[in-house]
Known about the structure:
Layout: H1 2-22, E1 60-61, E2 67-68, H2 71-78
Antiparallel strand pairs: 1-2
Amino acid sequence: MAAFSYTTIFFLVSSTLAHTAFSAFFKPRDINKWPKPPCKMYYPLDPSYTSECPDVISYVCATNGHTYKNECFFCVDQW
C-alpha cells in the first residue's frame, strides 16, 4: 500500500514539474510588446555622414528574418 502512494506522489510531482518546465516553450509571443531599439541615436547628422557602428556583439533579430550584430547595424540597415 505504501508503494502505491509513493508512485502516485512521484507522478504528481513529475507532472507538475514537467508542466512548469515546458510551459515557457509553448507560450504565445506577441512581438508588438517587444521594445523598439533607439534608432534616433544612430541617425546621421548630415547626408554625407557615414555611420560607424561599435564592434559590440549583441544580436538583434528582426521580423524580416535577418539577424544583426547589434542595434546600430539594424538601424543603419533600416535607413
